[in-house]
Amino acid sequence: MRTSNTNRLPTMDVEDKDDADRYRAPALDKGLDILELLAEQKSGLTRAEITKLLGRNASEMYRMLERLVARQYVVRSAGGDRYSLSLKLYALAHRHPPMNRLISEALPLMQRFAADAEQSCHLAVYDRGNLLVIAQVDGPGTWGISVRLGSRVGLIDTSSGRTMLAFQTPEQREHMLAEHTKVKGEVTIDHGALEGACETIRAAGFSQKDSQQIFGVTDLTFPVLTASGQAIAAMTCPFLKRIDEYVAPSLDQVTQMLREIVQGLSMFAEPEVRSGS
């Protein structure tokens, strides 16, 4: 019996190897190898570095990289010497069930926040040049402000947009800005001021700013982060301050509540959303 089992295992291994060889697609394998390699790099790689790390021929790597750039899966740095992943795969993932799982995980947390903070909140993701609101919960009070589900909001003049930009690699931020399409009423801001705003948000870990769309609203935004520190979504509370005799949670208290809610969601984000498992 032991001899029979021992003889059977090599046969299965050979069959598996034959199947793998039979369905090989070398060009596809090269492209996937590049994408998987770049996914682990924060600052991108040169073509020479990619060629060396993958042990491939320089000319075939050149052709493959040019096609990946042309199809917008990979972006070339401004100097033209480094390659990094674009956000196209990220955008494609939004159409996939993991995004639905992000929403299903977020909604109970958002509902708890809205009840405790007595404020509304919404969750937005980057999508083709601006932000898309994928979840929205109203506060329990008589008055409130909400952003309509499915709305597109500005990338550069909103707390959500700037927070998304702040927690990206420089290459990804450059690509997002290159794709940027203005929404109705979006306020123009110069590049230097935007970079300064993003740096401030990164240092603080969140954004707190007066709304540039609605008077009297303070926008609080925290990034939903992967383990690598990149934002896959932004959760925003458009905070309204009560001026009557009712004692509602303060701005500082609401900020802490939102921080705790988003930290819980960020713990979920890495294995479930980024990997697409």
Verbal overview:
With 277 residues, the protein is α+β, with helices and mostly antiparallel strands. It folds into 2 domains: 2-86, Orthogonal Bundle (Arc Repressor Mutant, subunit A), CATH 1.10.10.10; 91-274, GAF domain (Beta-Lactamase, 2-Layer Sandwich), CATH 3.30.450.40. It has helices at 2-22, 26-38, 47-54, 58-70, 88-93, 97-117, 159-166, 170-179, 191-204, 251-274, and strands at 74-76, 83-85, 121-127, 130-137, 152-153, 207-210, 218-225, 231-239. The strands form 2 sheets. The chain has a 6-stranded antiparallel β-sheet with strand order 5-4-3-8-7-6, sandwiched between helices. A two-stranded antiparallel ribbon has the order 1-2. Strand 1 (74-76) and strand 2 (83-85) form a beta hairpin. Helix 6 packs antiparallel against helix 10 and helix 7 crosses helix 9. It is elongated. The two termini are 39 Å apart.
What's a quick, concise take on this entry?
With 277 residues, the chain is α+β, with helices and mostly antiparallel strands. 50% of the residues lie in helices and 16% in strands.
Topology at a glance:
Blueprint lengths: L1 H21 L3 H13 L8 H8 L3 H13 L3 E3 L6 E3 L2 H6 L3 H21 L3 E7 L2 E8 L14 E2 L5 H8 L3 H10 L11 H14 L2 E4 L7 E8 L5 E9 L11 H24 L3
Antiparallel strand pairs: 1-2, 3-4, 3-8, 4-5, 6-7, 7-8
**Distance between the amino and carboxyl termini:** 39 Å
Spatial ordering of strands, largest sheet = 5-4-3-8-7-6
**Integer-rounded radius of gyration:** 23 Å
Annotated CATH homologous superfamily of the largest domain? GAF domain
Shape: elongated
Q: Which CATH-level-2 architecture of the largest domain?
A: 2-Layer Sandwich
Share in helix: 40-55%
User: Overall mean pLDDT score?
Assistant: 85
Beta-strand content bin = 15-25%
Helix/strand/pairing category:
alpha+beta
Largest sheet: 6 strands, antiparallel
Under CATH, the topology of the largest domain can be stated as Beta-Lactamase
Q: What's the CATH class label of the largest domain?
A: Alpha Beta
Number of helices: 10
- Uncertain parts: 1-12, 271-277
Number of strands: 8
Order of helices and strands: HHHHEEHHEEEHHHEEEH
User: What is the domain tally?
Assistant: 2
Region (Disordered): 1-20
InterPro entries: GAF-like_dom_sf, HTH_MetabolicPath_Reg, Tscrpt_reg_IclR_C, Tscrpt_reg_IclR_N, WH-like_DNA-bd_sf, WH_DNA-bd_sf
Organism: Paraburkholderia hospita
Protein name: IclR family transcriptional regulator
